[in-house]
Amino acid sequence: MASAISPVQGKDVNGPTAAINSLLKTDLSVATNGMVLDIKFSPTFFDKKSHHQALRMLVQAYAEQGGGEIQFNVMDRDTLLDAQTNPEQYKDLVVRVSGFSAYFTSLVKETQDEIILRTEHLGV
């Protein structure tokens, strides 16, 4: 089960732009609590300067078409798995959960697993 209005983990296989386009087909006015969209990017996504502008344009288009809160995690799966195994080495690792930030190692395993299972995007 996905958190908030995010796609189910691993099902957003056509990238964040496709996920946002699908989401915007729904009536977001009924989400009065400002449902959040979580997107996880690989750190290597930001290696390309053009991706910075692409992400900016994606967020702008989402907002202009009625999208609400969108939040990002930028980390890879291996780092998160290592943080589960060696929490003492990752005391300062902060993640976006679903509308709030938390120290990854302070979260229950089920929430950690949900964040790990989110699709890790390499592009928009």
UniProtKB/TrEMBL annotation:
It comes from Vibrio algarum. PANTHER family: DEHYDRATASE YBIW-RELATED, FORMATE ACETYLTRANSFERASE 3-RELATED. This is Glycine radical domain-containing protein. Gene3D superfamilies: 3.20.70.20. Residues 3-124 form the Glycine radical domain. Keywords: Organic radical. The modification Glycine radical is found at G99. InterPro entries: Gly_radical, GRE. It comes from the Bacteria.
